[in-house]
Amino acid sequence: MHRRNILLTCVIFGPLLLAFATETNFYPIPVWSLFSDAGQLSNGHVHYVMYGKIADEWHQLPPIQIVGALHNRLFMVASYTDSNLPLQISSPHPTNVRLIGTTERGARMPDLLKGFGRAYNARHFNKLSAIRVDALVWKGGEYTDFEQPDYSWEVAL
């Protein structure tokens, strides 16, 4: 009985310890790396804040109110859309083909915002009439200058 427990423990925890020791990324051990965007604080960062217009007033919309499954990691989608990463895959969607090579930031951001707005309106009684996302750019170094957005997108629903 004692040997069986030792063997079972090694079989279960052996790959886990090996993964941490060798920093091997295989699912499901380091799940946090799936949606993380590594970077250095000295390089700065862009933070996205979403707002919805309800009865002619803008209200901040936490991502959890739109799509509960992704919690606060939803803005990685906004970050990737802002940098036009959907246009850089090996086999882009046919509607993205016409946008390849564009220099416009967030060429697909209006479509993303429409999708967020529809998802919110499908789940809530108070319907949005418009949705906006502000990109707050932190240049790095000092922890200031986050009040004013550097750029934003707005879509009427």
> Quick one: biggest sheet?
4 strands, antiparallel
- Helical content band: 25-40%
Rg estimate, integer Å: 21 Å
> N-to-C terminal Cα separation, in Å?
65 Å
| Basic shape | elongated
How many domains in all? 2
Mean pLDDT: 78
Structural class: alpha+beta
The tally of strands reads 4
Biggest sheet: strands side by side, in what order?
2-1-3-4
Amount of beta strand: 15-25%
Order of helices and strands: HEEHHHEE
Number of helices, counting only DSSP H or I runs of 4 residues or more = 4
Describe, in plain words, how this protein is organized in 3D.
The radius of gyration is 21 Å and the shape is elongated. The protein is built from 4 helices and 4 strands, in the order H-E-E-H-H-H-E-E. The chain folds into 2 domains: 34 residues, no CATH class; 120 residues, no CATH class. It is an alpha+beta fold and 157 residues long. It has a 4-stranded antiparallel sheet, covered by helices on one side. 14% of the residues are buried. 31% of the residues lie in helices and 18% in strands.
Descriptive labels:
single chain, 2 domains, 4 helices, 157 residues, alpha+beta
